[in-house]
UniProtKB/TrEMBL annotation:
Belongs to the UDP-glycosyltransferase family. Its EC number is 2.4.1.17. GO terms for cellular component: membrane. The keyword Glycosyltransferase applies. Residues 1-20 form the signal peptide. InterPro entries: UDP-glycosyltransferase (IPR050271), UDP_glucos_trans (IPR002213). Residues 21-47 are annotated as: Disordered. The lineage of its organism: Eukaryota, Metazoa, Chordata, Craniata, Vertebrata. It is a single-pass membrane protein. One of its GO terms (molecular function) is glucuronosyltransferase activity. Pfam families: UDPGT. This is glucuronosyltransferase. It comes from the Eukaryota. It is found in: Membrane.
Length: 258
Protein backbone atom coordinates (compact mmCIF):
# COMPACT_ATOMS: atom_id res chain seq x y z
CA UNK A 1 0.00 0.00 0.00
CA UNK A 2 2.78 2.35 0.97
CA UNK A 3 4.59 1.51 -2.27
CA UNK A 4 1.58 2.69 -4.28
CA UNK A 5 1.45 5.90 -2.23
CA UNK A 6 5.15 6.55 -2.86
CA UNK A 7 4.68 5.83 -6.58
CA UNK A 8 1.79 8.30 -6.77
CA UNK A 9 3.84 10.87 -4.86
CA UNK A 10 6.75 10.50 -7.27
CA UNK A 11 4.45 10.81 -10.28
CA UNK A 12 2.91 14.00 -8.88
CA UNK A 13 6.36 15.43 -8.10
CA UNK A 14 7.64 14.63 -11.61
CA UNK A 15 4.53 16.22 -13.13
CA UNK A 16 5.12 19.40 -11.14
CA UNK A 17 8.76 19.54 -12.27
CA UNK A 18 7.80 19.01 -15.91
CA UNK A 19 5.09 21.66 -15.75
CA UNK A 20 7.46 24.09 -14.09
CA UNK A 21 10.09 23.48 -16.77
CA UNK A 22 7.51 23.92 -19.54
CA UNK A 23 6.20 27.13 -17.97
CA UNK A 24 9.73 28.45 -17.56
CA UNK A 25 10.61 27.65 -21.18
CA UNK A 26 7.34 29.17 -22.42
CA UNK A 27 8.02 32.31 -20.38
CA UNK A 28 11.51 32.60 -21.85
CA UNK A 29 10.17 32.08 -25.39
CA UNK A 30 7.47 34.71 -24.90
CA UNK A 31 10.00 37.12 -23.41
CA UNK A 32 12.36 36.50 -26.34
CA UNK A 33 9.55 37.09 -28.84
CA UNK A 34 8.60 40.35 -27.11
CA UNK A 35 12.22 41.44 -27.16
CA UNK A 36 12.52 40.74 -30.91
CA UNK A 37 9.25 42.55 -31.58
CA UNK A 38 10.41 45.55 -29.55
CA UNK A 39 13.70 45.65 -31.43
CA UNK A 40 11.90 45.42 -34.76
CA UNK A 41 9.55 48.26 -33.87
CA UNK A 42 12.25 50.42 -32.32
CA UNK A 43 12.88 53.36 -34.64
CA UNK A 44 15.65 54.83 -32.52
CA UNK A 45 18.91 53.01 -33.27
CA UNK A 46 21.30 52.39 -30.43
CA UNK A 47 24.24 54.72 -30.25
CA UNK A 48 27.37 53.39 -31.86
CA UNK A 49 25.55 50.79 -33.99
CA UNK A 50 24.81 52.95 -37.06
CA UNK A 51 27.29 55.01 -39.06
CA UNK A 52 26.66 58.78 -39.25
CA UNK A 53 24.71 60.29 -42.15
CA UNK A 54 26.58 60.72 -45.43
CA UNK A 55 27.91 64.22 -46.01
CA UNK A 56 29.15 64.67 -49.55
CA UNK A 57 31.35 67.14 -51.37
CA UNK A 58 29.41 68.73 -54.23
CA UNK A 59 30.73 70.78 -57.13
CA UNK A 60 28.21 73.14 -58.74
CA UNK A 61 28.80 74.36 -62.31
CA UNK A 62 25.77 76.49 -63.25
CA UNK A 63 24.98 78.03 -66.59
CA UNK A 64 25.39 81.70 -65.87
CA UNK A 65 22.18 83.58 -66.54
CA UNK A 66 19.94 80.53 -66.73
CA UNK A 67 16.49 81.44 -65.43
CA UNK A 68 14.98 77.94 -65.69
CA UNK A 69 16.62 76.32 -62.70
CA UNK A 70 17.11 77.63 -59.16
CA UNK A 71 20.59 76.15 -58.78
CA UNK A 72 21.56 78.82 -56.27
CA UNK A 73 18.71 77.83 -53.95
CA UNK A 74 19.67 74.17 -54.24
CA UNK A 75 23.32 74.92 -53.49
CA UNK A 76 22.28 76.94 -50.45
CA UNK A 77 20.06 74.14 -49.13
CA UNK A 78 22.69 71.43 -49.68
CA UNK A 79 25.24 73.54 -47.81
CA UNK A 80 22.78 74.27 -45.00
CA UNK A 81 22.33 70.52 -44.51
CA UNK A 82 26.02 70.07 -43.90
CA UNK A 83 27.34 69.08 -47.32
CA UNK A 84 30.46 70.69 -48.68
CA UNK A 85 29.34 72.80 -51.66
CA UNK A 86 31.64 74.69 -54.03
CA UNK A 87 30.17 76.82 -56.82
CA UNK A 88 32.37 77.62 -59.84
CA UNK A 89 31.26 80.85 -61.51
CA UNK A 90 32.69 83.57 -63.76
CA UNK A 91 33.97 86.72 -62.10
CA UNK A 92 31.12 88.60 -63.79
CA UNK A 93 28.00 86.67 -62.89
CA UNK A 94 24.39 87.43 -63.76
CA UNK A 95 22.43 85.44 -61.21
CA UNK A 96 24.57 83.32 -58.89
CA UNK A 97 26.82 85.46 -56.70
CA UNK A 98 28.15 84.46 -53.27
CA UNK A 99 26.06 82.49 -50.79
CA UNK A 100 25.96 81.91 -47.06
CA UNK A 101 26.13 78.11 -47.17
CA UNK A 102 28.55 77.46 -50.05
CA UNK A 103 32.03 78.42 -51.18
CA UNK A 104 32.69 80.19 -54.47
CA UNK A 105 35.53 79.86 -56.97
CA UNK A 106 35.68 82.45 -59.75
CA UNK A 107 37.63 82.55 -63.01
CA UNK A 108 38.54 85.54 -65.24
CA UNK A 109 36.74 86.49 -68.45
CA UNK A 110 37.78 88.38 -71.60
CA UNK A 111 34.73 90.70 -71.41
CA UNK A 112 33.52 93.24 -68.85
CA UNK A 113 30.24 93.95 -67.08
CA UNK A 114 29.24 96.69 -69.55
CA UNK A 115 29.16 94.14 -72.37
CA UNK A 116 26.96 91.81 -70.32
CA UNK A 117 24.59 94.67 -69.43
CA UNK A 118 24.28 95.70 -73.07
CA UNK A 119 23.53 92.12 -74.08
CA UNK A 120 20.82 91.83 -71.42
CA UNK A 121 19.31 95.13 -72.51
CA UNK A 122 19.13 94.05 -76.16
CA UNK A 123 17.63 90.72 -75.10
CA UNK A 124 14.96 92.57 -73.16
CA UNK A 125 14.12 94.68 -76.22
CA UNK A 126 13.80 91.57 -78.41
CA UNK A 127 11.42 89.93 -75.96
CA UNK A 128 9.07 92.91 -75.92
CA UNK A 129 5.96 92.74 -78.07
CA UNK A 130 6.29 94.78 -81.25
CA UNK A 131 4.57 95.35 -84.56
CA UNK A 132 7.20 93.36 -86.45
CA UNK A 133 6.02 90.56 -88.71
CA UNK A 134 6.91 86.94 -88.14
CA UNK A 135 10.06 86.92 -90.32
CA UNK A 136 11.41 90.08 -88.67
CA UNK A 137 10.86 88.53 -85.25
CA UNK A 138 12.69 85.40 -86.34
CA UNK A 139 15.59 87.49 -87.66
CA UNK A 140 15.90 89.49 -84.44
CA UNK A 141 15.72 86.31 -82.39
CA UNK A 142 18.45 84.71 -84.49
CA UNK A 143 20.69 87.75 -84.05
CA UNK A 144 20.16 87.74 -80.30
CA UNK A 145 20.75 83.99 -80.06
CA UNK A 146 24.03 84.34 -81.94
CA UNK A 147 25.19 86.98 -79.44
CA UNK A 148 24.13 84.83 -76.50
CA UNK A 149 25.79 81.68 -77.83
CA UNK A 150 28.97 83.66 -78.44
CA UNK A 151 28.95 84.81 -74.82
CA UNK A 152 28.27 81.28 -73.57
CA UNK A 153 31.03 79.85 -75.77
CA UNK A 154 33.57 82.38 -74.51
CA UNK A 155 32.56 81.77 -70.89
CA UNK A 156 32.87 77.99 -71.30
CA UNK A 157 36.34 78.29 -72.88
CA UNK A 158 37.48 80.56 -70.06
CA UNK A 159 36.68 77.80 -67.56
CA UNK A 160 37.65 74.67 -69.50
CA UNK A 161 41.02 76.06 -70.62
CA UNK A 162 41.93 77.31 -67.15
CA UNK A 163 44.39 74.52 -66.29
CA UNK A 164 45.27 75.80 -62.83
CA UNK A 165 41.61 75.97 -61.79
CA UNK A 166 40.83 72.50 -63.16
CA UNK A 167 43.84 71.11 -61.30
CA UNK A 168 42.64 72.79 -58.11
CA UNK A 169 39.18 71.26 -58.50
CA UNK A 170 40.68 67.81 -59.07
CA UNK A 171 42.45 68.04 -55.71
CA UNK A 172 39.19 68.70 -53.84
CA UNK A 173 37.90 65.13 -54.42
CA UNK A 174 34.30 66.02 -55.20
CA UNK A 175 31.64 63.31 -55.14
CA UNK A 176 29.40 64.73 -57.90
CA UNK A 177 28.75 67.72 -60.15
CA UNK A 178 25.45 69.61 -60.13
CA UNK A 179 25.00 71.39 -63.45
CA UNK A 180 22.60 72.80 -66.00
CA UNK A 181 23.05 70.61 -69.12
CA UNK A 182 21.89 73.25 -71.60
CA UNK A 183 25.64 73.93 -71.84
CA UNK A 184 27.94 70.87 -71.53
CA UNK A 185 30.60 72.68 -69.48
CA UNK A 186 29.69 70.94 -66.21
CA UNK A 187 29.48 67.55 -67.90
CA UNK A 188 32.93 68.00 -69.45
CA UNK A 189 34.43 68.91 -66.09
CA UNK A 190 32.74 65.91 -64.47
CA UNK A 191 34.18 63.64 -67.15
CA UNK A 192 37.64 65.06 -66.64
CA UNK A 193 37.37 64.63 -62.85
CA UNK A 194 35.88 61.14 -63.20
CA UNK A 195 32.77 61.83 -61.11
CA UNK A 196 29.01 61.56 -61.87
CA UNK A 197 26.76 64.47 -62.81
CA UNK A 198 23.37 65.60 -61.53
CA UNK A 199 21.60 67.25 -64.46
CA UNK A 200 18.69 69.64 -64.14
CA UNK A 201 16.83 69.66 -67.42
CA UNK A 202 14.09 71.98 -68.65
CA UNK A 203 13.39 74.13 -71.67
CA UNK A 204 16.27 72.85 -73.80
CA UNK A 205 16.21 74.13 -77.41
CA UNK A 206 14.98 71.85 -80.18
CA UNK A 207 12.75 70.03 -77.62
CA UNK A 208 15.69 67.87 -76.61
CA UNK A 209 14.34 67.71 -73.06
CA UNK A 210 11.05 66.10 -74.13
CA UNK A 211 12.80 63.77 -76.58
CA UNK A 212 15.36 62.57 -74.05
CA UNK A 213 12.73 61.98 -71.35
CA UNK A 214 10.17 60.45 -73.73
CA UNK A 215 7.47 62.98 -72.80
CA UNK A 216 4.73 63.54 -75.39
CA UNK A 217 4.74 66.98 -76.98
CA UNK A 218 2.06 67.09 -79.70
CA UNK A 219 2.16 70.34 -81.71
CA UNK A 220 -1.64 70.52 -81.62
CA UNK A 221 -1.49 71.28 -77.89
CA UNK A 222 2.09 72.26 -76.93
CA UNK A 223 3.13 75.71 -78.24
CA UNK A 224 6.51 75.97 -79.95
CA UNK A 225 9.22 78.59 -79.56
CA UNK A 226 8.86 81.92 -81.39
CA UNK A 227 5.08 81.52 -81.79
CA UNK A 228 3.97 83.19 -78.57
CA UNK A 229 0.99 80.85 -78.36
CA UNK A 230 -0.48 79.33 -75.21
CA UNK A 231 -2.06 75.92 -74.66
CA UNK A 232 -5.37 77.37 -75.85
CA UNK A 233 -5.02 77.83 -79.62
CA UNK A 234 -7.45 78.36 -82.44
CA UNK A 235 -7.42 76.11 -85.51
CA UNK A 236 -5.27 78.60 -87.42
CA UNK A 237 -2.80 78.87 -84.52
CA UNK A 238 -2.62 75.08 -84.26
CA UNK A 239 -1.83 74.86 -87.98
CA UNK A 240 0.95 77.45 -87.65
CA UNK A 241 2.25 75.70 -84.53
CA UNK A 242 2.37 72.38 -86.39
CA UNK A 243 4.26 74.02 -89.27
CA UNK A 244 6.82 75.46 -86.84
CA UNK A 245 7.20 72.02 -85.25
CA UNK A 246 7.94 70.53 -88.67
CA UNK A 247 10.56 73.23 -89.32
CA UNK A 248 12.27 72.77 -85.94
CA UNK A 249 14.92 70.32 -87.24
CA UNK A 250 15.97 72.87 -89.89
CA UNK A 251 16.02 75.70 -87.36
CA UNK A 252 18.16 73.62 -85.02
CA UNK A 253 20.63 73.00 -87.83
CA UNK A 254 20.92 76.74 -88.36
CA UNK A 255 21.16 77.54 -84.63
CA UNK A 256 23.59 74.76 -83.74
CA UNK A 257 25.72 74.08 -86.83
CA UNK A 258 28.36 72.27 -84.77
Amino acid sequence: MWKAAVFVFLLLNMEKQVNAAVDKKSSRTEEHMKTEEAEANDTNPKSGTVSPAFLGNLLVVPMDGSHWIGIKAMAQEMGRRGHGVTVVMPEITMRMGPGKHYNTVTYPLPYDKDYVDSLLASHKDVMKKSAKNFLEKISSHFSQINKSTGLIHTTAESLLFNDSLISHLAQQRFDAVLTDPVVPTGSLIARQLGIPTINLLRGIPCTLDTQSSGCPSPPSYVPRFFTGYTDKMSFKERAVNTLVALLEPLLCRLLFPW
